[in-house]
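We give the chain.
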Amino acid sequence: PTSSGSRARCPRDFSIRSSAHGARLGGGSGVGDADEEYLARFVWTAGGALIAQVLNRSQTHLKLLCFDPATGARTVVLEERSDTWVNLDHFFTPLHRAYGAPRAPHSEASDTGASIASGFIWGSERTGFKHLYQYAPGGRLIAPLTGGEYVVESVVGVDEERGLVYFMAAHPTP
């Protein structure tokens, strides 16, 4: 520790110094708690849901949570686990409609409470390479969108009209 902050474990050969402080989700002191969690990323969806990526202290278990601000209900949508660590990214992309379906008005998307109205795109390293996957609203895997011995670097855009995802990748050359 330093006078300007504290040292945090980092999955590389260096440490991070930070003077930022956070609160433990679900209450508790968070001091010396093996189940301590960090709010790593969050985004509001068009349907009014708050989507949060939450990591455990050792960064080996990530949960994608959906919060309904009207009721306070919390749903675990997806979980990622790794023996070493889970790399965070900004690949979570909520979809506004299923491929080929007409776009629903905003009010219809939120009739049953805040949710991820038509599913989402998610990035995962479960194969050893970062790839994109399409999920249904409740977190059921629909299909892998990319695959192979290369790494997807970022989602550039989504054309829901044509069912296309544009992405950048580090593909090996021949």
About this structure: The two ends are 47 Å apart (CA to CA). Residues 1-25, 27-33, 105-113 have pLDDT under 50 and may be disordered. The first helix runs from residue 106 to 109.
